[in-house]
Amino acid sequence: MRVRTIITNILNEIVFRQIADARHDCSPYMLIHFWTICRILQGIPPQLGYPKEKLPDVIADQVKEFVQALQGPPKVVNTGATAGLLDLLKTFLQISPRDLQDTIRIGCLCTARALTSKLGPDNATVLSTWLNYYRYRDKEGLDRQQFLGRYGRALEEIEQQYAPNHEYAIDILCNYAVAAHYLCHDNDLARKLAFDLWERTQSACEEPAWTVKTKGMAEAAKLIALLGCVNHENKRKNAKDMKKIRQKAGCKGKAGRKKWRQTLIPPPLPQDAAKAVAHLDEAARKLADRGDWDSQFTAAFLYDCLANLTREFCRENSEGHRGEGSKIRSNIVLFHELIKEPPTAVSA
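Above: the chain's sequence. Below: its structure in token form.
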């Protein structure tokens, strides 16, 4: 209950308050961020242990707080370029909690289709929108090779227009690697992109503030570790896909399970696993030493990932990593209870 209260306060008093200025953004890209935040808000209540029957109402309340923060004071008359978006938000509040999930999914799909028709399928923003939709909503209709090919062309175009180490290029490369690993399961391509991303971003923590490069460094370290330790494709599939695999292999009986186990690739050797998680360990330590919330939250997540990956190979190290993650989260909670303001990185 204490954690629920703290998370709710952080959302209402800090996160929603800081994004209120976004109401003045009349860019169509605002819709992309809107659907992404709605998706994240949908995922918070289940992690906080709310009963299943209460989830629709709890999620609806959080999304409502977010939408009202974007709307601004009720007495303000909204006119001009932002009126259309604000009218959309007003309509969004009238949706019932039971229909909210489908509404968000359909809204994300319609946004992706509309941007594709206006900007073209190879546009980086369009690809990012489709990546979020395919990864979290519905993979039906995804042509994996075509999608990865478009990401490759978008990255090449941005690198030629700006530079390989420009933040635009880093952002596309990061999403490209994520798509290759999580969405398309192209392990060879994902590994190549992850190491490329690490080379471009490993010095990111020398910068005073959280940037796209810092995010890219964390994502690269995680991908390199996952690709080095989790070497059976089935482990990267969701529950629905895993059920199909078990049914196809006839895993209901003892003989069926034995047949399926024979398809598994042996786990990596301890020394190989240690090499795979080295970048993850380095990234977690660097981020933990920074003072801003983005770095702190990401460091805690990376330590959890590190603990899970090393559990099979070195349990003592695994418990230590998990302890570091818990310590960071405890400090964040304590900090919020004391001053209720997020820390920020100090500019150089």
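The CA atoms of residues 4 and 49 lie 9 Å apart.
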